[in-house]
Structures are given as C-alpha cells and as structure tokens.
Amino acid sequence: MAGWLTTQGYCLHYTRQLVFCVKRTLDAFHLTPGSTWTAEQLRVAFRRYRRAREYRHARRAFGSYLRSVGRLIADTSPHLHRQAIEQYLRYLSEVKGLAPDSIVSHRWEVGAFLRRTLPSGNPIQRLTADAIEEYVQRRSTKVVRRSLHHTIEILRVFLRYCFDARLITARLDSIELPQLFREELPPRAIKWALIQRLLRSIDRTSRTGWRDFTILHLMAHYGLRNGEVARLTMESVDWHGGTLLVEQTKTHSWLQLPVQKKTLRLLARYLRQPRPASAHQRLFQHGRAPFGPMQKADISQLFKYRVRQSRLPIKGSAYSLRHSFAMRLFARGVGVKAIGDLMGHGNIASTSIYLRLQTDMLREVALPVPLNSQAVGGAK
After folding, report:
1. I want to staple 334 with a disulfide (CB 3.0 to 4.6 A). Which of 119, 168, 261, 329 is the partner?
2. How far apart (Å, rounded) are the C-alpha atoms in residues 167 and 86?
C-alpha cells in the first residue's frame, strides 16, 4: 500500500501516518493484509472516537487502494431504486437536455427522497401521497423557501416521470409549490475594499496559496461562477490575444472575456509553480493527494476557508464575488447591457436585479420632497 500511495502523490510523512492507521486497524480487526473487504467492513473497522479524522482519511485511502487492486467487494445487496434512478437521469440528459450540474442536483434530491420515504427498500410502487407530504413538511423545516421550491420542482418532475414510465399507478406529482416572487431578495455583494483585503491576506508562499489567490482574483475581477473557474483549462488562456475562453454550462455557450495584462502575469506566475504530474489539462487542481481537477464544490470550500483565515467580516458565499463584480461595474457607469454580456446573461432581466443595490444611483433620480411652506395649501 505504501508504494501505491507514493505513486498517487502522497508525501512520505502523510504516507507513514496513513499506513500506521491501516496497520493498527488490520491488527484490531484480525484480517490479513491480503484479505478482501466490503464497504461495510471498512466503515466499521476504521470507526474511531479518538483521532477520528486521521482514521477517516486512512479508510478512504485504504479503500481506494483496495479498489485499485480488485480487493474491495462491490455492494451486491439488492437496491430496488438504483436502476430507476439511473434511467431517470438518462431521461433528464437525453430527453430533457439538462446540464450535468442540474442532473447531479436531481440525483441527490431524488436519492434523499427515496431513502426517506422508502427506508426499508420498498419498491417505488408503494409511494403514497401521505409519505410525500410528510417528506416535504420535514424538508421545509431545514431549508429556506426558495430551496424548498427547487426541491418540490425536482420531485414533481421525478414523480411525473415515474407515472409515465409506469413505475407508479397514480399521479402523485400534484405537490403545491410555495409562493415565490422574482428576485424577492437582493443579491449579496461584498464591498470592494473587503475583497482586496481578502486577496492580500492569502499567503502566497505555497503552491495552494498561489492557486487560491489566482482563483479568487479571477472570480472577483471577471465575475466567473464557481463551475466556470473550475473548468478552465490550459487552452482557455489566449496569451497573445489577451482573452479567456469560459465554458458556460448554465447557458450552453462559450464566453470570450478580455483579460488585463496584470491577470496574464498572475496566471503565468501561478503556472511557474511546481505542479504534480497529471493527465488532465485543468488549470486548477487539488493541492493534496490524490491529485485531480478541482470541482465546483471545491471552489466554495476554498472561499469559506480563506474567509475564515482572513478573519474579515465577510458574509455570503463565493457567488458574492460575482455580485460584487456587477455592482462595481455599475458604480463605474457601465451600462446594463454591457454588464450582462460580460457576465454571460442570456436575459437582461438577470442583470437588472443589481440596480436594486445601487442606492447611490437611485438617490440621483429621486425627486426632492417639498417643505410644508413651499407646498400649495400647506400649513405655515
């Protein structure tokens, strides 16, 4: 196992720590190093109350090693819902044409719904309206109204598909949606001075420091979404033309953004950092073994970690950097259409919501309030 961890990019000190935890677990579980394992055995054997985090990491590393040598037994227990979920996801991709990120969201919501409403592995035919209503009520206590609206929309699509595919015999998709108003809450933006302090607080003496600084710089200066910056590749940067090619899966389009020379120098400086050998061409990858391309969720965790490290009064998610980008352009007098083009909006209404936060601009168009002495018929 130690040799396999080394080939995967684990450093010597971390490899020793993982091997030590695995060896202690093997001794306590009375299994020889060459034995086969199941996922349930791994979960039970590596469960610890002391040093739980170290043993959790060792379990994941040992499980990956067992899978690579064919000694991890796949879960052969019958799963009545797995085939239905996979068929539903193919339907979303091939018939509905949903983006991969949307399909992942459907997979999670439908899986959680079936685990809760059919916990004993009962077939989907046993779904009832009462069980669905109970699940929605329980879900409403844990998420905000907009998230609940999104959950119910997914359930309605799934239940309609189940009826059309004859997985259920009755229509169960008539779930009432909570009332929403378009953009009822204004977007959350971060002041530009705070963003600059956040960027300055990142320690760039390490490879991950340069990576995080470059990612947040691109999001703050160009309004990129989490998934867009994660999908950037080496070919996305046109060094001679000074542009950045961004894949927008939300609108199924490509966006070519002009980049400042400062950003090009920053990207060149980041790429001069030593990078682990990898077959993929993603611009940003994990800083720890096992190495691989960063995902959308990794960008969110990166932002939260850097905010905690900076100890700055910043609230919101990484998406707040995109809102701040739009607000800064409005403050500089850039038109709504131009901002929408830079942000890749397909509808100008998506850009107009930022006008609600530009209170200084709204004050300029407000009419003065007349005094009582100047008003006609007013008391003096």
Report:
1. 329
2. 14
- Of residues 48 and 353, more confidence is placed in 48
Say which residues have a Cβ less than 8 Å from residue 372's Cβ, sequence separation at least 6: 378, 379, 380
CA 310, CA 75: separation in Å to the nearest integer? Answer: 43
Q: What does the alpha-carbon distance between residue 229 and residue 95 come to, in Å, rounded to a whole number?
A: 28
Q: How far apart are CA 11 and CA 349, in angstroms?
A: 50
End-to-end CA distance of the chain: 91
The CATH number covering residue 222 comes to 1.10.443.10
Asked whether residue 237 is assigned to any structural domain, the reply reads yes
Name which of 283, 262, 282 is nearest 271 in CA terms. 283
**pLDDT tens digits, one per residue of 131-183:** 999 999 999 988 888 889 999 999 999 999 999 999 999 999 888 888 776 65
Reported as a single tens digit per residue, the pLDDT across 337-365 is 777 777 777 776 667 666 655 555 555 55
Q: Which long-range contacts (CB under 8 A, 24 or more apart) does 277-280 make?
A: 277/9
Q: Domain of 34?
A: 2-73
Q: What's the pTM value of the predicted model, to 2 decimals?
A: 0.67
pLDDT higher for 313 or 27? 313
Q: Are residues 334 and 281 in the same domain?
A: yes
Alpha helices in the chain (DSSP H): 2-7, 12-29, 39-45, 52-68, 82-91, 100-117, 129-140, 145-164, 192-200, 207-222, 226-230, 261-271, 296-310, 319-331, 336-343, 348-352, 359-365
Question: For residue 42, what are its two tokens?
Answer: 């791994």
Mean pLDDT calculated for residue range 36-60: 81
Instruction: Decide if 213 contacts 202 (C-beta within 8 A).
Output: yes
In this structure, what DSSP letter does residue 293 have? B
In the prediction, which pLDDT does 46 show?
82
Does residue 292 sit in the same domain as residue 348?
yes
Locus of tokens 């980008």: 325
